[in-house]
Write a sequence for this structure.
């Protein structure tokens, strides 16, 4: 089981209001229209934003929603609408396929209760195209929570958290006709040196190979990342040939980071960029890059100084049109309940906005999206008027923040409130 937030961390926050010009709440979730935005949104070909919530909707098993360019939200589908949730429960990341339809996974539900892959029209018509754990002993995988990748031949590639021959997760390929092939079973190497629980999926790089991270496995450091290993970074070919590229916590005190759970990004310079939940110089998480030559460089250790930069960067990074990287931290920052931050290619991090768990939301774990209007959009797990999270828009940059140090009791309270995964179910409420 993944640790949620570990280690003794002393960080800073402030609770004063930030500039109203910096962020705008465009949707407040109220459970009926959704609850808990775990996954990043996408912009559809029609210019609208599309996304999912893990909970909420008619059955409290998640929603598929659309936000118009004018800002109005419409719930297009509530999961678990079919008997025994055969249509899936707890949906996650979306992609828009070459055919214009949307594709994604559900963490639970389906015919076996172990998750599914679905197709959905822009009008909200759902078709299940694969049910996991339909092969003997779940050798096809179970509990998927990754973003799918579609290749030119129409196939989809992704990962499952568990299942496979070792029950430690898989990489799979789903053909256009719905045939699933397991390409790799994690924990196939001694002591799970190849990694276990590849939680967030794959990135297709310009060399034609896929790259990803496994949250656990690899090197172990019982003090910092538990007995199950600190995570790995890997490459896998479309035919399933696996190469271990890096084992996290290879440096003293895990200064290089541990527990990677953010999706990798290939940037304009050809390097892959990512984040880790823990480790780094301050055990508040880290941002890293791996160069095309295979060198791993730690760019930033979070919770620097007074933690205005935030900590626990669960989400991956995006590279915006200005050339800088943007992401979210789940805790810390100017309001104490997470940040949207900017990181330069050299690793300098600045908080763009700090959440205070009020009307603007709290505990962001989803990555942000830069839409065609140039603005950043994202969501939070909690906060908002009803406490079920929000969708926000960032259109500017905060210029100054005050500081105050969180005492240990306050930090523990924030940790308890935050539902940081091992899975999108957090503590399964």
């Amino acid at each position: 089981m993944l640790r949620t937030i570990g280690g003794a961390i002393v960080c800073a926050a402030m609770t004063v209001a930030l500039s109203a010009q910096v962020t705008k709440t465009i949707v407040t979730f109220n459970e009926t229209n959704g609850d808990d935005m775990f996954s990043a949104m996408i912009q559809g070909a029609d210019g609208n934003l599309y996304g999912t919530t893990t909970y909420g909707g008619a059955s409290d098993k998640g929603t598929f929603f659309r936000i118009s360019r004018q800002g109005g939200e419409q719930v297009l589908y509530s999961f678990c609408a079919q008997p025994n949730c055969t249509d899936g429960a707890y949906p996650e990341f979306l992609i828009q396929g070459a055919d214009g339809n949307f594709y994604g996974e559900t963490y639970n539900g389906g015919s076996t209760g172990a998750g599914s892959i679905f197709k959905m029209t822009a009008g909200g018509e759902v078709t299940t195209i694969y049910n996991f754990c339909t092969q003997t002993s779940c050798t096809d995988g179970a509990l998927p929570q990754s973003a799918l990748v579609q290749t030119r031949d129409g196939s989809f590639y992704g990962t499952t958290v568990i299942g496979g021959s070792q029950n430690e997760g898989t990489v799979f390929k789903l053909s256009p006709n719905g045939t699933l092939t397991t390409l790799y079973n994690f924990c196939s190497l001694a002591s799970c040196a190849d990694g276990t629980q590849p939680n967030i999926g794959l990135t297709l790089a310009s060399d034609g190979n896929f790259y990803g991270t496994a949250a656990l496995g690899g090197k172990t450091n019982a003090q910092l990342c538990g007995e199950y290993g600190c995570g790995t970074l890997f490459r896998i070919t479309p035919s399933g040939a696996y190469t271990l590229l890096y084992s996290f916590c290879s440096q003293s005190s895990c200064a290089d980071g541990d527990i990677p759970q953010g999706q990798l990004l290939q940037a304009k310079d050809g390097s892959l960029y990512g984040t880790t939940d823990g480790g780094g110089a301050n055990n508040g998480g880290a941002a890293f890059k791996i160069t095309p030559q295979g060198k791993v460089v730690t760019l930033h250790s979070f919770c620097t100084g007074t933690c205005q930069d935030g900590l626990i960067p669960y989400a991956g990074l995006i590279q915006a049109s200005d050339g800088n990287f943007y992401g979210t931290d789940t805790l810390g920052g100017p309001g104490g309940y997470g940040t949207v931050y900017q990181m330069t290619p050299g690793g300098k991090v600045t908080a763009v906005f700090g959440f205070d768990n009020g009307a603007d939301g709290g505990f962001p774990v989803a990555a942000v999206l830069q839409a065609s209007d140039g603005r950043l959009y994202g969501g939070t797990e909690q906060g908002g008027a009803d406490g079920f999270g929000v969708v926000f828009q960032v259109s500017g940059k905060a210029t100054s923040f005050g500081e105050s140090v969180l005492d240990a009791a306050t930090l523990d309270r924030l940790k308890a409130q935050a539902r940081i995964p091992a899975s999108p179910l957090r503590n399964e409420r």
